[in-house]
Specification:
Blueprint lengths: L2 H17 L5 H25 L5 H31 L3 H5 L5 H31 L11 H25 L10 H9 L10 H7 L3 H13 L6 H32 L12
Helix pairs in contact: 1-5, 2-3, 2-5, 3-5, 3-6, 3-9, 6-9, 6-10, 9-10
Amino acid sequence: MRASRTLAIVLRQIYLLRGSPTRLLPMIAWVAIDIVLWGFITRYLSALTGPKVNLVASILGAVLLWDFLGRVMQGVTTAFFEDVWSRNFLNIFATPLTIADYIGGLVLTGIGTSLLGLIAMLTLATTVFGFSFLAYGAAIVPFVLVLFVTGISLGILGAAIVLRLGPASEWLIWPIPSLLSPFVGVFYPLSTLPGWMQAIGRCLAPSYVFQAMRGIVAGQGANAGDLAFAVGLSVIYLLGACWVFARVYRFALRTGLIARYSAETAS
């Protein structure tokens, strides 16, 4: 893996954004809409419950953290889709670029675009609704990193699915965060769920992040054991996603699937 080749992937994405600034809009617009919508819902619920319950930190904070995971995932997959949409995938791998270089470039692109979305969310939530991320303290930082690694893993796995099934399957990728959200307890404890959903939720690293967030807001602090387990899960996700992408890529090369890769179908 060479840094210059990895940075070349990032540089291509920068050129795309510079040549078409409208690509910046989705990185900010959707998260801004979510923050505004949930901000007013939180303000309304706060008026009903009174100042005893810190709904801004527990609900608006949960929305912000979950959107952050979605932005990280979409940062990786969108960078991959740019190569699919422009039919540039074959050109890229006609160069000495390795699969590690390419994935590294996707990850760095995801970091940049997700940070842009996070800054927009924090600015809006802080200035309009009085949300302060500092209310969580430093204890939330490692849990945010867990969300970040999980988002990267989902992005790489989504790219592998599209590479294997074809460009039309991108519509399977966008709803992944929404499909996972009921199981990870973004707005409620896992104990609220039926047993089979709790079992799935315990296998998902974000579940422990939101459990920790609620504990911090309630003044109970974060559980170190939960953090260690969530870190372990997120590392397994990342290694597994990279392994799956590499396997799918080699399969596409071996079967000739990659040569028939087009904007509409792949078989």
